[in-house]
Structures are given as C-alpha cells and as structure tokens.
Amino acid sequence: xxxxxxxxxxxxxxxxxxxxxxxxxxxxxxxxxxxxxxxxxxxxxxxxxxxxxxxxxxxxxxxxxxxxxxxxxxxxxxxxxxxxxxxxxxxxxxxxxxxxxxxxxxxxxxxx
Amino acid sequence: xxxxxxxxxxxxxxxxxxxxxxxxxxxxxxxxxxxxxxxxxxxxxxxxxxxxxxxxxxxxxxxxxxxxxxxxxxxxxxxxxxxxxxxxxxxxxxxxxxxxxxxxxxxxxxxxxx
Lengths: 112, 114
Hints:
The complex is a heterodimer.
Chain A lengths: L3 E4 L2 E4 L4 E8 L5 E7 L6 E7 L2 E5 L6 E7 L2 E7 L7 E8 L7 E2 L3 E5 L1
Parallel strand pairs in A: 2-11
Antiparallel strand pairs in A: 1-3, 3-8, 4-5, 4-9, 5-6, 7-8, 9-10, 9-11
Chain B lengths: L3 E4 L2 E5 L4 E7 L6 E7 L6 E7 L4 E4 L2 E6 L4 E6 L8 E8 L8 E3 L3 E6 L1
Parallel strand pairs in B: 2-11
Antiparallel strand pairs in B: 1-3, 3-8, 4-5, 4-9, 6-7, 7-8, 9-10, 9-11
C-alpha cells in the first residue's frame, strides 16, 4: 500500500461544530504532517509528528488539535472554526522527517 | 530561516515546446530540493527531486538542475503535453536544527496549449 488515505473528502461545518479529519498510511512512515492549502497557493505546514510525538507546531490556533493515536493514524480535531479556515487540508507522510513527502488527496473544508 | 522564491507565477507554452521554472533559496545549508506537481482538484505529487551533492538529474522529459553557488535550481520540461498542465511547486528542506521542514515556493501555473 503506497497511499495516504484521508477522510472525509468534503466537509461542511458551522462555526460551533466539532469535527475530526482522519488520515491513515501503511507505508511504515514515521513522520506524518498536516498542511493547509488555499487554491493555487503552496501547502502551509501546520503540524509535524515524528515517531508519534508532536515535533513541530507552526503556531496554529488552538481550535485545531492534532492527535497521533499510533504510527499509522493521524487525526485533526476541529472546534469553533472561522470562515477563513475554509481550505483544503492535506495529510502527508514521509519515511522520516524531511524526506520525500507523500500527500493524501485532502479534505475540502468549508466553514459556514 | 529558509525562503524560497519561484518564477514565473504563470507560464503558457505550446504543446511540444519546453518549459522552465526557476527557484532560488536563501539558506546555503539546505540540501534537498523536491518538485511537486498539482493538477486541479488533486493532491501534490512528487515528480523529481535533487540533493545538494548532485548538479543535475533527469527522468524522461523532466530534468532538474542545481547551482549551489548561486543558490538556485530549475525544473525543465521538454516536449510538453497538455497533461503537463498543472501548478508546480518547488521546495527546499531546512536544516535538521530548523526541523527539516520543506519550504515551498509560491507555485507556477503551467498551461500547455494543444
């Protein structure tokens, strides 16, 4: 299996909702990432997990809460989001931090 | 910290022509430079990468060149085809002390006209 799988593909939520994005990889990669991407802009790094421990938090607001339950899974918990948080959220993995990134197909999030 | 500049922001070529996209980076310690292609509505995909101990790398119609002295690297696509139309992002990896993060350029939207 050489894919990073993300669910859901699309998500619409209100500003008071709580939702979670999920990501899974079975390539044995030990680094996993969350990125945020606006249309035709580069991916913006949010969080990095290395060996299931949070190693980088790019000053992301606390309404985004990452979780790495095990070496194959990565979640992003969302709470009290703002309309400007609407974007494509990409999960990625790499064998180790800084190595070749494999991206998932993303979750297109709309906050109303 | 590392900064990556990418040019041009848009590029339109005729099918069969060559396309060149250029990036410059600021941190001379950066040592890994990947290129990603992102088609509309799809995920970014790695198309080629180069490490700082190599000056050039080629894979069929795609090549990347690296000039460490000038701190710039370029993507070359020959014999372009309509399916090459996409947004291309270059990136540079920061040092381990800076987290080994990939810093992306702003992207180039390539349009190949049949």
